[in-house]
Amino acid sequence: MDLQKLITRLLKYNLWANERLTAWLLTQHPSLLYEKTGSSFGTIAHTLQHILSGQNYWHGIIAKGQIKEYNQPVGENAAAQIISDLIVSSQQLIDDLSTLNDQQLTENIQASDSKQSRYEYILHVVNHGSYHRGQVVTMCRALSIKEEIPVTDYDGYLWWIENM
To answer: Could you tell me the domains of the chain?
Structure first.
């Protein structure tokens, strides 16, 4: 598999995982998304917003060479909009980055304090989302929701694309 196909597969995984988790979250009582859990970002809604902010930040660097402030304003009581924006952002990553060829993917680009290849930053975006989706699952369990939490692991995605 060439680099472009691998990156596209990872970006599609990111969208799939975000769609699965957020679709499930929307079936829960809305107050769940705002309950404080003591986790890194306090609430599920804030954690989702952090994933979205990270995707938007890195999208600007990887696709457009624009380094913007990472600190996004925190939206209060806006979980439905955050979820919608997260899915749109995940699709935009696919649309804009899956067209990059291997030369563009291996080209080093400057972020605020480091210079790495585009594909390494794309791997970071996908890994960052995975990490924080795991936090959301842990937060749900801390809020006593233990059943029917969807699988969002990459291995689950590989099974899904082979069997669905």
So the answer is: 3-157 (1.20.120.450)
